[in-house]
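hey so i finally got around to running the thing on that chain from the lab meeting. sorry it took forever, my laptop kept dying and i had to restart like 3 times. anyway pasting the input first so we r on the same page abt which one it is
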Amino acid sequence: MYNIENYDLLKTLCSIHSPSGNEAELKNFILNYVELNKQEWKSEPKILSGEGFQDCIILVFGNPKTAVYTHMDSIGFTVRYDNKLVLIGGPEAVTGYELVGRDSKGEIETKIIADLEEGFLCCDFQREIDRGTELVFKSNWKETDTTIQSCYMDNRLGVFVSLMLCEKIENGAIVFSCYEEHGGGTVPFLVKYLWENYKIKNNLVCDITWATEGVKLGKGVAISMRDSRIPRKSFLNQVINIANAHDIPFQLEVEGSGGSDGKELQSCPYPVDWVFIGAAEENVHSPLEKVNKSDIEAMFSLYDILIKYL
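ok and heres what got predicted. didnt touch it at all, straight out
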C-alpha cells in the first residue's frame, strides 16, 4: 500500500475559501498546481476548463476508460441582513465556532451565535457584513502520527487524492466538480462531455463518508454498496473484487440516506456506472472533521489500482 509522507498539500487545500457557488479560488489553485507539476507526471493531461465548464475542471490523460469525480466545494454560511446567517449545505452551526471570510470592507473573523430551535443564527462581527458574503470555518489543522483533524476534509481530501493520482495516471480522467454540497448541478454537463467525447462509462466518486457503527476510522477505505442511491451491483462487484485481489484494506458501507455526485451520475441519460469510494471521518460538516492516515493511504492505493484495472 502506498505510503504518504507529506500532507502539506492537503493542509493548504483545507484552508482555501471554496463554498458552494464560489469555487473559483480553489479552481485557480488547482489549475496553477497542474501547470507547475504536469511535466513531472507520467502522462501530461489535456486541461479542460473555462467557457462551457463554469468553475469545473476536467483533466484527461491518454485514452481514458475511467473517470474520478471529486467535488471542490464546501459547506458554509451566507450573510443575510444584520449579520444573520443562512446555511450553505448542511454545516454544524454551533455557538462559538469560528468563521472567516472577506467583503468589500476587508477581512472578517467572527463567531457563530446560534439558537436553531428558535431559528436564530447570526455572527458576532463588530460591523455589518456585506449581504451575500460567504463565511467558512476557520482553518484549524491538527496532525498526529495517525490522524488529521481539520475543517473541510470533506472534500479537500478527495481533491488531495485526485491531485496525487495525477502523478501516476497514464489513461484516465479526473473531474473536479462544483455545487455538490448545495444541490449539485454541474455533474450532468461534465458526464455529458466525457460520454460524448470519450465514451467513459466507469465513474468513481472520490469523496468523504461518515464514521458509523459499521464504518470505523483506521479500518480501511469505505466502498459504499448504497446510500440514498444504489450503484449497479455488477460494477460494484468489479470494484470489490479488484480491491480484494490487491489486498487493499476496505470496509463495505450500507446506508439508507446521504448522497454525493453519484446521485447525478445515476440520474444522467447515459449508460454509465458509478461507485462511491472514500475515507470515513468523524465530526462531519464541522470544524473538527477527523480522518485516519491509514484510511487515506488505502483510499489513494485503491484509486490508483482501479484506474489501471477497470
